[in-house]
Structure formats: C-alpha cells, structure tokens
Amino acid sequence: MPDWNTPALVYHSANSSILNHAMQLHYQILGQGQPLVFLHGLFGSGDNWGAIARYFSQHYQVNSVDLRNHGCSPHSDTQTYPEMAGDLLDTLNALGADQIHLLGHSFGGKVAMQFATQYPQRVNKLIVVDMGIRAYADAHTQLIAAMQAVDLSQAQSRGEVDKALAAAIPNLAVRQFLLTNLVKTEGQLHWRINLPALRANYAHFQAALPAHYEKPCLFIRGERSDYVRQKDIVEIQQQFPRAEFVSLPTDHWVHAEQPQLFIQAVEDFLS
Q1: pLDDT of residue 7
Q2: What average pLDDT does this structure show over 179-188?
Q3: I want to staple 10 with a disulfide (CB 3.0 to 4.6 A). Which of 29, 158, 263, 271 is the partner?
Q4: Is-catalytic flag, 59?
Q5: Rg for the chain, CA atoms, rounded
C-alpha cells in the first residue's frame, strides 16, 4: 500500500502496459487520505476538475485521471469501455490504491459505471454526473470532423484555430473547451487528443452500457440537461438498486456551472 502522507501534488506521465492491453494513465494527485478518483468527459482531461479537485484534496487524496486518447495519457487505436476500465485498474494497481471513491462526468461517468461493474470490490462509492446508461444520439462527430479539418501546419496561434473552427462550431464556449486540447511542440500546433481514434470508436461511446452495481451510488443531473431524463432514472434504478439522485439547476456541465451546490451534493453523499 502507498503512503497516503505523500507530498500534496504528484504528476505521473503514463507508460504503456502489456497487461490485457491496458495502459497506465496520466494522473495528477492532490492531498492525502482516502483515494477519490475523478474521470473527465469526452475531449476533456484531468485538468477540467481544477478547483473541485483542490477543494476535495483537503479531505481526500484526489486523483484526476486522463483517459486513453485524452490529455497526456497514451494513444490507442481502440477505445472500448471495458478497455478504459482496465486502464484505470492498471493505474490504480500501480498506485497501490485498493479501495476508492469514483466520480465521473458524462463520458467519464460511463467509464466509472463500467469500472464499478467490472471491479465492484475496488469501489466504495460511485458518483455519476449527468450521464445515463442508455444509447445516445451522435452529438460529437461534427466537432471531431471540424477539428480534423483545420490545417494546423498553417496556423500560428490559438486565435487562428478558433477562427477556423467558428463556421462549423459557432458556440464560443464549446470552441474554448475544445481548444484546451491545442498544444504547441517545437513551434508546431497539434491536437493532443487522438482525433482519428475518437472518431473511429465513437459508435461504441454512444452505445447503451450494460452496467450493474449494488453498492451506494449517487447520480447528479443537470435540470436543464437532457442527458438524464425521468425515464432514464427508472432504467438506472433497475441496474443500480442503491442509487440516490440529485438534480441541480444547470445544463450538462454541472460541476462548472454550480460548483458550490455540486460540492455540497458530493460531500453529503461521501460523508
């Protein structure tokens, strides 16, 4: 087991593992105590948790993970939910983290549910943020295509890339989020997310998730979001018999739109 009294912030650059094609993921650790793992949504990274991770690091050892093909984690041509659950297991084993609380938003919520289904003995409490288990319509392929269409060899700045994306993605907030994946190496801009793999595996991301978990879990949804509807709650209750539900006055980005209410809901559940 690790020493939970380690320094407050630890960064890990991922290395590939040959175990069941899983890989150790990039992560950031803040704080000490019971491990609390955060999983980001599609196109995101562990950085998305920012102030939320810092807050919970006062009481937990917070581990903000980059999923495969995202952030600083390794790239792969394949990306199924079982594979991503295996990646997380590989990473937790390397850390010596046997028992965790697990929290995932959106796409990361599906990964969290898959992990809890495959490895229930490793999860004490599960928190899923604005995500159900049903199949979802395609809401992202056009974003991937728009990013792939930008000729980054001709772009010199983030502003130029933003301008190139504007016609296909008129929502400024969405563009700003996607542009967090734009990085410069040796003077050349490139996307750090693996766009070809995300596009190739997107149909799998959309599919319904055959998840089941019998320990305590919390589903937090945005009242103005259509990701978790009333009929989704009925379906979730069938597969997660000890599920609790909280609705907050937000759209899909629950933790970013109402951080204090989000923190309170999570604190109440974990305590």
Answers
A1: 34
A2: 94
A3: 29
A4: no
A5: 18
**Rounded Cα distance, 26 and 11, in Å:** 8
Candidate list 17, 73, 106, 225, residue with the active-site label = 106
The residue from 12, 105, 252, 255 that is catalytic is 252
Beta bridge partners of 184: 189
Residue range 167-176: mean pLDDT, rounded: 96
Query: 262 CB contacts (<8 Å, ≥6 apart)?
Result: 52, 129, 220, 248, 254, 255
Between strands 182-185 and 243-248, the pairing is unpaired
How far, in Å, CA of 143 to CA of 160, rounded? 17
Residues 6+ apart with CB under 8 A from 73: 14, 23, 25, 26, 65, 66, 67, 87
Q: Which long-range contacts (C-beta less than 8 Å, at least 24 apart) are formed by 56-60?
A: 56/31, 56/263, 56/266, 57/8, 57/30, 57/31, 58/31, 59/31, 59/33, 60/31, 60/33, 60/34, 60/35, 60/36, 60/101
The tens digit of pLDDT for each residue in 51-78 reads: 999 999 999 999 999 999 999 999 999 9
- Residue 58's CB: how many other CB atoms inside 10 A? 11
Quote the pLDDT of residue 21. Answer: 65
Strand partners, 69: none
> Is 247 an active-site residue?
no
Residue 9 has pLDDT above 50, yes or no: no
